[in-house]
Amino acid sequence: MLVVIKKARKNLTERRLRILNREFFRLAEDVRKIKEHSIENLEYLIDTAVKNLEKNGFEVYFAKNVREGQKVVLDFFEDSSTVLKAKSMVSHELDLNSALSEKGIEVWETDLGELVIQMLNERPRHMTMPAIHIKAEEAFKVLGVQDFEGLKAKVRKLLREKLARADGGITGANVISSDGSLFIIENEGNARLVSALPEKVMTVTGVEKIVDSFSSAVKVSEVIWKSAGYYSPSYLNVISGISKSGDIEKRIIKGLHGPSKHAILFLDNGRMKARDSAFKETLYCVRCGACQFSCPSYEALNADWGTVYSGGIGAVWNYITGSESNPFYCLNCGACVETCPLRIDVPEMLRKLKMIKIGKIN
Length: 362
Ligand code: SF4
Hints:
Keywords: 4Fe-4S, Electron transport, Iron, Iron-sulfur, Metal-binding, Repeat, Transport
Pfam families: Fer4_8, LUD_dom
Order of helices and strands: HHHEHEHHEHHHEEEHEEHEEEEHHHHHH
Largest sheet: 6 strands, parallel
Bound molecules: iron/sulfur cluster
Protein name: Iron-sulfur cluster-binding protein
Helix content: 40-55%
GO molecular function, one term: 4 iron, 4 sulfur cluster binding
CATH class of the domain at 40-271: Alpha Beta
CATH superfamily of the domain at 40-271: NagB/RpiA/CoA transferase-like
CATH architecture of the domain at 40-271: 3-Layer(aba) Sandwich
Organism: Geoglobus acetivorans
Number of strands: 12
Structural class: alpha/beta
């Protein structure tokens, strides 16, 4: 298991070295300012985003906590029988796979790593590479194939069949611009299919993902994919409304090719409160996952930093979102701060979290 993580870390480090240049670091400084401004003005940005998203044809919902979030999702998919999901850590925070399955709704992950861990009954161990701890042989075995060619053919066939009859889709979002657009970065193309083919789609995301403008959202997106080791992703999906046509007599038909309903669920779950705490910087995190690979503890132990998110920043995310959290694997070496494009001081937040856990501070 550790060898798999070591390989992934080596691969990412080499790719980042090739990609990250002076321009990237200047862009990352801009993005840090964008995030600081967004979190400072979050109430205003939420109001603006809601108005503009609704104007663009989205339904918008809010959930204060997991219970409310699950209710919104279950109500929305009440009459659905098969829901396909693109990768979303917030959907794990909401434990949507269990919630939907308990209501008799068939749920399928479509991101390859997520699909494999769903079939193995595991949970994600990394923000962008959920199956980082799984060996190829384990993936082959659970899918009943011999090699990567077999895996590709099997997954393609399986998910094409599911997509053809799915009546619901769930995606996450990397960034939301307050002028009314969703940004979803991906390489596989599954988020594109899941957000376009089913009749009803819901995007679930944290409130901290909202930024002030379309151009800011583009900057944040570029920092995410470059920090994750890509010159550019295979797909950058920008969704600014629902499918519609006015081709015949200017009469608007909704949902002609894409979904006729696209809802967005903004989850708070401790984020708004975190703005006034020692953990505020967590809300600047763009979830590129780079810091996890720089952490000697993450690589050596593949440990449990809590119930939803992994790694040092994951332990803080777990804490502010009310999940079990374990900050004690942090060695305080500071490697993550050096790696983080936004220079988020994860060790300092973990130091405070350790103090809270041992009852030294509240
Ligand atoms: S803390 Fe920084 S490096 Fe780690 S996931 Fe968040 S933005 Fe990326």
